Amino acid sequence: MRIVDVPGSLDDRTIDQFAASVGAWPPDDRLLVDARATQFASPAGFTALLTLGQAVAEAAGPRPLLHLPTSDNVSSYWAKAGLLEHAADYFELHGKVPRRRRAEDSDVLLPVRPVREQLDVHAIIDGINDKITQMLTEQLHHEASFIGGFSQSLSEVCQNVVEHAGTGGWVAAHTYLFRQRLGRNVAVISVSDAGIGFRRSFEGLHARQLGDRWTDGAAIEAALIHGQSRFRDPGRGQGLMAVKRFVSKWNSKVSVRSGTARVAIGPRNWDDEDPRTDDLAWFPGSQLTIVIPAKAGGS
Amino acid sequence: MIAHIRLDAMILQTVARPYRDLVTRPTGRAVRRQVMNVLQEAANHDALLDFSDIGVVDFSCADEIVAKLLTGADGVGVTRIVLRGLSDSHVEAIEQVLQHHGLVVVAICAGNPAPRLLGQVNDDDRAAFHALIAAGRSGPEPVATALAWSVERARQALNTLVGRRCLLAHPDATFELGVVA
């Protein structure tokens, strides 16, 4: 049995510690994912947990164990956020499993949902209803035009899974107080898949030309910074460019992790992450996170 | 005559569910094929794509429907394609994809009956477009007067807009927007 430690706070940055704890891939032993001490998980954390479970299943590995957080409040939140109903499909759950099912009337913007086909994307966007619109406007204080861009970005990042991953993925969106880095509310959208990753997705275009320089980081930059697509259709590659424009307009951040690299585009006034980080611990598939802060000075 | 195409009805036929959002590339592709079928019946007429009851339009769908329809419009023989009932977020997506492809289209936004151009268009052409709308059907002279241009400059801008299927040209050397609402 290999113990995989879940950090006390699992988010788009601490996923690196989580990935390091997974170790060699595919795992040569059954995994015990230990979240007993975990106090917080962002949408990036939830979707990464499910991605790990899915990747083990797709690699025909032994069903991992997931030890739930000891804190009743934390595990209840995990249930409310929709994690546990999906985690039960991939993990043997241990610890006190809350009875509470996913609550559609919770303060979670978008509970964890699978993204496998285009109709999933339709259902997700159709779910951005009046209540969610009200939550976003009340908590982030952005003008009404923000909602359209939020939905468009959500749609584009979900479609990337369907079009490029070669397998299914997960999406979640929450709002919460980003106390340490901002002292303001943020909305966070995360999408993660257990698929082939950016490097393999683009391999046919660049691998021969760039040789050893064709890395995970180079592949993410090709898509996120340069808007390249593996398709010949000149209309392709606009989705991530649109996400980039959206985050720029709303003082927000987008980061993409794939394989052993992460590329981040964020405003210097609140984000200190390096634009590109290589040589991270390998993690299956691709993970994309958008962090949208509340308008400064909003009441 | 104008062929009026309600895109909400096209979505219903395409995804067979009561969704009102134009999202995902496969949906855009399927909706475009349906629209093309309608346009085949509307040769030599204008076609009005009505977004009035559409929720979200994402960039992929805007590319598949609007950009690819405009680039393929020659093949179906419609005079022009005009967009109607656009919200601000529709405009943002459609404008971006049209600029990406170097295309332009006449559009009427929700709550504002004044026609506008969306996409890649230079300052002269945009100014001539608005001046002609104010003048009504006319030759280039009123446009040139309104903009303090030479007649030739006005004629050139109007002809460009005709070539890009934004205005109609008549045998008597006049131009007009025509009925687009």
CATH hierarchy class name of the largest domain in chain B: Alpha Beta
The total tally of domains of chain B equals 2
State the oligomer. Answer: heterodimer
Largest sheet of chain B: 5 strands, mixed
Instruction: Give the topology string of chain A: H per helix, E per strand.
Output: EEHEEHEHHEEHHHEEHHHEEEE
Largest interface: A-B, 26 and 30 residues
Number of strands of chain B: 7
By DSSP (H or I, 4+ residues per run), the number of helices of chain A equals: 10
Q: Report the CATH topology name of the largest domain in chain B.
A: Transcription Regulator spoIIAA
Q: What is the helix content of chain B?
A: 40-55%
Helix content of chain A: 25-40%
Helix and strand topology:
The complex is a heterodimer of chains A (299) and B (181).
Chain A: E1 2-5, E2 9-10, H1 15-22, E3 31-34, E4 40-41, H2 43-58, E5 65-67, H3 72-80, H4 83-90, E6 92-94, E7 110-115, H5 118-126, H6 130-140, H7 145-165, E8 169-178, E9 184-193, H8 197-210, H9 216-224, H10 238-249, E10 253-259, E11 261-265, E12 276-277, E13 283-293
Parallel strand pairs in A: 1-3, 2-4, 3-5, 5-6
Antiparallel strand pairs in A: 7-8, 8-9, 9-13, 10-11, 10-13, 11-12
Helix pairs in contact in A: 2-4, 5-7, 7-10, 8-9
Chain B: E1 2-6, H1 7-15, H2 25-40, E2 46-50, H3 59-72, E3 81-86, H4 88-101, E4 104-109, E5 112-119, H5 123-135, H6 140-147, H7 151-163, E6 168-169, E7 175-176
Parallel strand pairs in B: 1-2, 2-3, 3-4
Antiparallel strand pairs in B: 4-5, 6-7
